[in-house]
Amino acid sequence: MATQTPLQILLFRHPEDRETIAYEDAIVRAIRGGRDLGGYLTTGEDLGEGLGIQLRTFGKERPAKEAAQLLDECCHTLVIVLIDAALLGSDAVLEWLEQCWAHVRASDGRHGALPFAMTERLAGDFASARNSALGTLQIRSVETFGERAVRPSMVALLMLHTCRALLARGLARASTTPCESSDFLRLFISHAKVDGLPLAQALKHMIGSIEWLSSFYDAKDLPAGCDWQLELERGVG
């Protein structure tokens, strides 16, 4: 297994469809950071340089390398597909993605895929585009991510969570000690009781509305009779 790069992201979008631009920008910004920040999800951290995450983008032409070869170049690969009408017309790309999905399924969790359809109808069209080969791939419409203005940021947040889960599973396999489940990203909410309570409760409510996040909140997660100091230290851990 290649070890020079822990994680790479392969992003597929058709360059002639402007509807996917906001989603591509949010994904790139979440990984590469930079000075020109905006929107709801911002970071000055360059994860590509800091953590060795490599981001490659592909348009209407299929990658030159075969799917298995390209995915296995890194320890883990996450394939993101922004599905629009233009992408559905690229038969060569669809054929490559069909091979890619077959390799992801056979990788035992080493690699992952995140297909996002610009509309619910396009999700069905993508699944049936290559007969039944892509039929088992769960596709999510961006329409399910709330209001239009926050959808790109929510897609980028899910992408970051999926990257973390892939890396955590790899660490769990390599570790000699048991590791906790990586299915959810857990956030510890620390707040001042006097003036921070409303904000903390609002944050807890928001975390609870996102299915791939979970939280530790003292009023809820400290059982009666426990050593609260020890439980807080465990929660932070």
Q: How would you characterize this protein structure?
A:
By secondary structure, the protein is of the alpha/beta class. It has two domains: 7-174, Response regulator (Rossmann fold, 3-Layer(aba) Sandwich), CATH 3.40.50.2300; 185-236, no CATH class. The chain is built from ten helices and seven strands. It has helices at residues 21-32, 47-51, 67-71, 85-88, 91-105, 120-127, 151-174, 197-208, 218-221, 228-236, and strands at 7-12, 53-58, 76-83, 112-117, 140-141, 185-188, 213-216. It has a five-stranded parallel sheet with strand order 2-1-3-4-5, with helices on both faces. The protein has a two-stranded parallel sheet with strand order 6-7. The model has no long low-confidence stretch (mean pLDDT 81).
A few lines on this structure:
With 237 residues, the protein is α/β, with parallel strands linked by helices. 41% of the residues lie in helices and 15% in strands. The protein contains 10 helices and 7 strands.
Topology:
Blueprint: E1 7-12, H1 21-32, H2 47-51, E2 53-58, H3 67-71, E3 76-83, H4 85-88, H5 91-105, E4 112-117, H6 120-127, E5 140-141, H7 151-174, E6 185-188, H8 197-208, E7 213-216, H9 218-221, H10 228-236
Parallel strand pairs: 1-2, 1-3, 3-4, 4-5, 6-7
What is the CATH third-level topology name of the largest domain?
Answer: Rossmann fold
What is the name of the CATH class of the largest domain? Alpha Beta
Helix content: 40-55%
H/E series: EHHEHEHHEHEHEHEHH
The protein's oligomeric status is: single chain
Structural class by secondary-structure content: alpha/beta
Number of helices: 10
- β-strand percent reads 15-25%
- How do the strands of the widest beta sheet line up side by side? 2-1-3-4-5
Q: In the CATH hierarchy, what is the superfamily of the largest domain?
A: Response regulator
Distance between the termini: 30 Å
**Low-confidence parts:** none
Shape: globular
Radius of gyration (Å): 20 Å
Question: Largest sheet, described in full?
Answer: 5 strands, parallel
Number of domains: 2
CATH architecture type of the largest domain: 3-Layer(aba) Sandwich
Number of strands: 7
In round numbers, the mean pLDDT is: 81
